[in-house]
Amino acid sequence: MAGLDTTSGGILGKGRNTAWRATPTNVDMTLPAILPRVVTIDAEPQGVTIDLARTAIVVIDMQNDFCAKDGWVDHIGGNYEADRAAIAPLQKLLPQLRQAEVPVIWVNWGNRPDLLNMPPNQLHLYKNSGEGIGLGDPLPSNGAHVLEKDSWAAEVVDELTPQPADVRVDKYRISGFWDTPLDSILRNLGTRTILFAGCNTDQCVLHTLTDANFLGYGCIMLADCCATSSPDFCTEATIWNVKKCFGFVCNSDAVLKTLP
What we know:
Strand content: 15-25%
Radius of gyration: 19 Å
Order of helices and strands: EEEEEEHHHHEHEHEHEHEH
Strand order of the largest sheet: 8-7-6-9-10-11
Distance between the termini: 16 Å
Helix content: 25-40%
């Protein structure tokens, strides 16, 4: 991210909005003078005005296990192509957000090989009969371990390769905030508004968004940058609930129109 030089001596912290400045005789804890970059987005149920300098996008679970042939969803006979619907809009949006200095944060399943932090109810999500291929098991097609950190199965799809300046966060539950550093990272970046994208719309995207709402962030779901292999009514209910209770909904074009 451009802006504050957090590598030089005297700067304490990585967030351009939150860093301290230190000398041998003084520590300046006042907030850096970052000019707001105010834009208004055409959203539902209302238009929303945000500060791009205090905004991040969180992209959830755009991983091979959900979005690629021979991944876990494909293995169980699910419609992995449906989860790919978010790829093209994100390919268009993410470069523009990076250019506008909006942090891109990838929040993905990245489980421990030993699964020691995964209780039985979480293992049941992926192997509800106790048999077959579940979390940490090798896929028959290529041997990659399902949603295991550093495996092909857990990697972001090739079409959306994260860039060096992007932030990666491993998650271990449907919500990206549970038992992860996501909240600390966002607060250290000075983030107040989060754009949400990824899959599945009605599961990991929704529950990460609702937790963000409970933590006090402004939440905007980018509907065309979200996807799910669930039935259509699941997406309809999710969008209705986000607009009713948890934030705002728009398409990526509404954001692109506001970017410098």
